[in-house]
Design brief:
The complex is a heterodimer of chains A (about 180) and B (about 160). With about 180 residues, chain A is of the alpha+beta class. Chain A has one domain: 2-Layer Sandwich (Muramoyl-pentapeptide Carboxypeptidase, domain 2). Helix content of chain A is about 50%, strand content about 15%. Chain A contains 5 helices and 4 strands, in the order ααααββαββ. In chain A, strand 1 and strand 2 form a beta hairpin. The longest helix of chain A has 27 residues. Chain A is globular. In chain B, strands 1-2-4-3 form a 4-stranded antiparallel sheet, covered by helices on one side. Chain B has one domain: Muramoyl-pentapeptide Carboxypeptidase, domain 2. In chain B, about 50% of the residues lie in helices and about 15% in strands. The relative contact order of chain B is 0.17. Chain B is of the alpha+beta class and about 160 residues long. In chain B, helix 1 packs antiparallel against helix 2 and helix 2 packs across helix 4. Classes of the chains: A alpha+beta (about 180), B alpha+beta (about 160). At the A-B interface, helix 2, helix 3 and helix 4 of A face helix 1, helix 2 and helix 3 of B.
C-alpha cells in the first residue's frame, strides 16, 4: 500500500534524477575511455553541441518565445525560460561586460552534480561541460555564435557555479539567398 | 503543471540518443569494435538502474516474492522512466520473464519500417542494463536481452540466475 501512496509526488523528482544519474554514468564511462580530462571535456562539449542543435527546436516549439532583439534579451530567455524548463532552475544573470556582449549565469545549485564528488585524480575535469556545448549548439541554430565556458564550479570548491557566455558574432551566411 | 516534466523527458531522450551515437562515433575513429559499445551502454544502464531503484524503493513495502518485484519493474519503474507501463508480462514460472512494450519510448522517434530494424539493438542496450541494475539492487541476479520484430514494439527477456 505504501508503495502506491508515495508515487505521485515522487514521480517528478524521479524523472529529473533519471537524467542526473544517466549523465553521471556517461561521464564515468568517458573517464574510462579517455586518458586525460581534457579529452573528456572536449567530448562532453561535442555531445552537448549535438544535443543543443536538436534541443532548440523542442524549445522553440514548447516555449513560444519570439525573436530576441539584443543579447540581454537572449540572456533572459536562457536563464528564465530555458533553464527553468529543462533543469527546473533559474540562474541569475550578472557581470555584464560594459559592451553588453558578455555575461555570467550563476547557478546556485546545479542539478547535474546532485550526487557527485570529484576524485582527486580528476582535478581538471569540467564535469558539467555538456551544458556549454548545449548552449553553444542551440544558439548557433538561431544564428548566434557564442563562446561558453565554466569559470566557477561548486564541485571544485567554489561557492557557486558560474557559466560565462560571450557573444562572438551573428551568423549571416547560412540564410538562403533572397530570404530575410 | 505537466509541462516541465515533459521537458525533463526531452532532455533524457536527447542525451540517450547522443550517448549511443557518441559511443559509436568514437569507436569508428579507432578504439574498440561495435560489440564493446553495446557492453558500455549496458554498463551505463546498469549503474543508472542501481541508483534509481535505490532511491525509488526507499519508502516502499517489502516485496513478497520475485513476481512481485517484476510487477513493480513493469509498473512503477517503467512508468517513471518511460511514462507508460509494460503492456504484457509473461513468465514460465521457472525464472524467465518476458516484458513486452508495444510502444517503447526510445524507439518511437525512429521510422517504424523494416529499414532501420538492424539499428534497434543499440537503442535497447541501455535499457537492458537499467533492468538488470534495478533487479540486482533488489537482490536478483539476471541476464537481460531484448528483441525487436516490428518497431516500436519490443520484448525484454529477463533470465533470473539462481544464486
Amino acid at each position: 500500500m505504501s508503495r502506491q501512496a508515495g508515487r505521485g509526488t515522487e514521480s517528478k523528482k524521479m524523472s529529473s534524477e533519471l537524467f542526473t544519474l544517466t549523465y553521471g554514468a556517461l561521464v564515468t564511462q568517458l573517464c574510462k575511455d579517455y586518458e586525460n580530462d581534457e579529452d573528456v571535456n572536449k567530448q562532453l562539449d561535442k555531445m552537448g553541441y549535438n544535443i543543443g542543435v536538436r534541443l532548440i527546436e523542442d524549445f522553440l516549439a514548447r516555449s513560444n518565445v519570439g525573436r530576441c532583439h539584443d543579447f540581454r534579451e537572449t540572456a533572459d530567455v536562457i536563464a528564465k525560460v530555458a533553464f527553468k524548463m529543462y533543469l527546473g532552475i533559474t540562474p541569475s544573470i550578472t557581470n555584464w561586460s560594459p559592451a553588453g556582449d558578455e555575461f555570467s549565469l550563476i547557478l546556485e545549485n546545479n542539478p547535474l552534480v546532485d550526487f557527485v564528488e570529484l576524485p582527486d585524480n580528476h582535478s581538471s575535469l569540467i564535469y558539467s561541460n555538456l551544458l556549454c556545448g548545449v548552449l553553444r549548439g542551440a544558439l548557433e541554430m538561431v544564428q548566434m555564435a557564442v563562446d561558453v565556458k565554466f569559470v566557477q564550479d561548486t564541485l571544485k570548491g567554489d561557492g557557486v557555479t558560474e557559466i560565462r557566455m560571450k557573444f562572438v558574432k551573428r551568423i549571416e551566411d547560412n540564410l538562403p539567398a533572397g530570404e530575410e | 503543471m505537466t509541462r516541465p516534466e515533459m521537458a525533463d523527458e526531452t532532455l533524457f531522450l536527447l542525451l540517450h540518443n547522443e550517448m549511443v551515437s557518441g559511443l559509436y562515433r568514437a569507436a569508428e575513429h579507432g578504439e574498440g569494435e561495435n560489440g564493446r559499445c553495446i557492453t558500455k551502454l549496458e554498463n551505463m544502464g546498469f549503474r543508472v538502474g542501481q541508483g534509481l531503484i535505490e532511491r525509488f524503493t526507499k519508502d516502499t513495502a517489502r516485496f513478497k516474492d520475485e513476481l512481485d518485484i517484476m510487477k513493480f519493474i513493469c509498473k512503477d519503474f517503467w512508468t517513471t522512466v518511460f511514462k507508460k507501463q509494460i503492456d504484457n508480462l509473461r513468465t514460465n514460472h521457472q525464472g524467465i520473464y518476458v516484458l513486452q512494450d508495444n510502444k517503447f519510448r526510445l524507439l518511437t522517434q525512429m521510422s517504424t519500417g523494416k529499414q532501420y530494424l538492424e539499428y534497434a539493438p543499440k537503442y535497447l542496450a541501455f535499457t537492458c542494463g537499467l533492468i538488470r541494475g534495478g533487479l540486482s539492487n533488489l537482490g536478483i541476479k539476471s541476464i537481460v536481452t531484448a528483441e525487436v520484430s516490428a518497431m516500436p514494439a519490443c520484448k525484454f527477456q529477463v533470465m533470473i540466475q539462481k544464486m
